[in-house]
Amino acid sequence: MTDQQATPLRRDARRNREALVEAAAELFAQQGLNTPLDVIARRAGVGNATLYRHFPTREDLIGEVFATAGSVLAEAGEQALAGEDAWAEIERYFGRIFELVAANRGFNDLVTMAIPSVPALAEMSHRNAATVTALMVRAQKQGTMRLDVVPMDLLFLLGPLCRAVPAADDLRPGLWRRYLALLLAGFHTRATEPMAEPPVGEEQLDQLFAGLWEAEG
Questions:
Q1: pLDDT under 50 in the chain at which residues?
Q2: What is the residue range of 15's domain?
Q3: Do 27 and 94 fall into the same domain?
Q4: Do 112 and 163 belong to one domain?
């Protein structure tokens, strides 16, 4: 086979790969990381064999789709660490993360689930923990955060709340801001700021948890 004959095949393969990544990005954002791979292949207009040729495992595809996710969080972390008021930066940093997970269910899965087989994601998790630790230590020195809490306390509580964000946002866009503010207030030495959002009713709470169940199913 000549170079001229081989080139179109390489071009087709590149086009198929790009179509798969684009389709996966859209579907992961809408449905989460457990979106069936055959659905992704159909959205991309290729067969399952083509998908597996480019991405032998789901983790390979996830790693490709979210290759830049780590840099987005890293940039948010760098901006937070550059600020002078540690407490304000903690609020801003987690607000940014929650905005991202509210808009993208795949990103929500990334930051609330462990996927050890995707090294870049593990690195993202470690970097996030380091950022939170540095901000908390600084806030404690500045007198705005309780001295009897540790980074794991905050990360432990934020995980489940973060997981609930897409369902809460379906109920009311921005509802998560109230509960993030409530959670963070428990770590502050003083809690006098008004809540960012009004509370939900009992019926809405049932709807929220039903949405979580459907999302996991």
A1: 1-4, 6
A2: 3-65
A3: no
A4: yes
